[in-house]
Amino acid sequence: xxxxxxxxxxxxxxxxxxxxxxxxxxxxxxxxxxxxxxxxxxxxxxxxxxxxxxxxxxxxxxxxxxxxxxxxxxxxxxxxxxxxxxxxxxxxxxxxxxxxxxxxxxxxxxxxxxxxxxxxxxxxxxxxxxxxxxxxxxxxxxxxxxxxxxxxxxxxxxxxxxxxxxxxxxxxxxxxxxxxxxxxxxxxxxxxxxxxxxxxxxxxxxxxxxxxxxxxxxxxxxxxxxxxxxxxxxxxxxxxxxxxxxxxxxxxxxxxxxxxxxxxxxxxxxxxxxxxxxxxxxxxxxxxxxxxxxxxxxxxxxxxxxxxxxxxxxxxxxxxxxxxxxxxxxxxxxxxxxxxxxxxxxxxxxxxxxxxxx
Length: 358
Known about the structure:
This protein is of the alpha/beta class. The protein is built from 12 helices and 9 strands. The protein has helices at about 1-30, 30-65, 85-105, 135-150, 155-170, 210-220, 230-235, 255-270, 275-300, 315-320, 330-335, 340-350, and strands at about 115-120, 150-155, 180-185, 190-195, 200-205, 250, 255, 305, 325-330. It has a 5-stranded mixed beta sheet, sandwiched between helices. It has a two-stranded parallel ribbon with strand order 1-2. A two-stranded antiparallel sheet has the order 6-7. Strand 4 (about 190-195) and strand 5 form a beta hairpin. The longest helix is centred in the N-terminal third of the chain and has 35 residues, at about 30-65.
């Protein structure tokens, strides 16, 4: 709490200094300031308003006609595709975010007092971590925060997943101590040493294919839409046979490219899809189990928290929980929706964190 108060004081001092400098600049260079204001108004009148006006009209019509509910899904992936190109993802975000904001307003969810906005600005806080589609969310959040006159808190996508999982355990102390955290999704299979959700040290990862990629590729092979994790889980639940997958784990690192080869071979041999789906998920579960045990040898007694969309699988949760001491799995909405975690981190930054699980 003292650290948050210190940060708030620093922000207030910096803000005061910036306002003082701006006031002095206006007094010292009034003609330049007036000209800059005129240029800004002309830019808004000639470019910004004409560009955005059609979207405002369309968004209002969609909301008034009750069509917003049919457009709730942010991204649409073509049938048979394994995701979207970044340019397509960015375009879909830009096109649909205004509709979703109008929907929130129509439902009255923007009427409540809002003290800050949180936004994930990149996948992870590591060098080279960048995806263009994050720009759409950041720009929408920045515009909303400026319009409301409230702070914008930057986080990473990975931090959001970690914070959501820690929060959902109902154990507040996990935010103030070291934990082992798995972030397992379509873009990561990372084993992390975390101090809360703020300080993150990578320990291990997949050397090639990520767990979510392996699951989605199998689902698309079977004709399911992307992302396919829920369909693979449903199929796997129908299999009563025991499976004994081959895994490749060295210490806290793993390789999952062999899994794709294995289930492709099983399908070619005519194995039942339910068996193949169970084989895939148990392979992921056994891989995580071995990585967790290796990490606990160097960090004995630490809680092991599992976050990310793949961790919403009941089969993986049951398998790993029986084999890893201190394993914490959380309800699916907390495992897969990093926006919950981003909002928690923004609330913590403002000293308004809710401490009980939703």
